Amino acid sequence: MRTFTPPTCRRRSLPAFPAEAGIRARHSRWLVPLLCLWLLSCLQAQSLSAATPQGHFIIAGTGDSQRLLRRVAHAFMDLYPRISVEIPDSTGSGGGIRAVLAGRCTLARVARPLKEREKQQGLSYLLFARAPVVFAIHPSVEGVDDLTYEQIIAIYTGRITTWGRLGGSPDRKIYVANREAGDSSRRVLETFLPGFRNIRRLVGETVYTTPETVAILRTTPFTIGYVPLSATAGTGLRVPTLNGFAPTGETLESGEYPLAIPLALVWQTEPRAAERLFIDFLLGPEGRRIIETHGAFPVQ
Q: Parallel, antiparallel, or unpaired: how do β-strands 260-267 and 107-110 relate?
């Protein structure tokens, strides 16, 4: 016998629109805007990446600003990791200028003004700081807190040969580090320290770069030598006053401390974007702070 199912009991097909489908529909309304925002952020990131300068450049030249510019370069590269700045070992101011003229690098570091023949080759010169030239002493010597002009002349002519003659302790032989003729620091002494130019024969060993001079002063007890103050930062070397005056920005400005070298950058072709960014950083607040904390004085 067939069973009859009343209409009210028949199962009806449910619409193909379950509750989860409604959720998907609601979510789909947000999907397109979210995709658009994601694509826009990707495009902005690519645009920023393309706009940020990148590359590698070398600043060759003098050892007088070698340590200082390496510190500036490290801070700069922390801020701009897509740019690599190399500060190689010293080749002297002349070596840096020759590298620029030969096209081996765009920027050079120098510690003297340009010569007339160098200006005629189209070089640009940017003075960024002045560094006092100081007489640095190995920390093995105590009690020598000030040196007079006369005592400096006596040391470098060999008339004073022991630290005891200067009030130093212990009373040991003075070992003298000298620089070659034409060195920037030596040129300053010959110009501004009375009598230094007239010394016919300087005693001591001749050293040919500032970093080498600093290394000798740090490792050889009872030594004295002259270097830019900026090269002594963090070395532990003792720096006595000269004729009663400390090497400060004020005494340089007043002329009471007359011994200072110019620290500058030189280029022939216009610096590229990354190099210009470095120059702006060097002259800006953070660059000036690093210069001041490492024994040099930014130009105004």
A: antiparallel
Q: What is the pLDDT of residue 53?
A: 76
Residues 91 and 155: their CA atoms lie apart, in Å, by: 28
The CATH superfamily assigned to 132-254 is Periplasmic binding protein-like II (3.40.190.10)
* Low-confidence residues in the chain, pLDDT < 70: 1-52
Residues 6+ apart with CB under 8 A from 56: 83, 84, 85, 86
Determine the CATH number of domain 55-131+262-298: 3.40.190.10
Cβ atoms of residues 225 and 120 within 8 Å: no
User: 3-state class of 35 per DSSP?
Assistant: helix
Query: Strand pairing of 297-298 and 124-137?
Result: antiparallel
Who's near 291: CB < 8 A, 6+ residues apart? 68, 72, 128, 129, 230, 297, 298
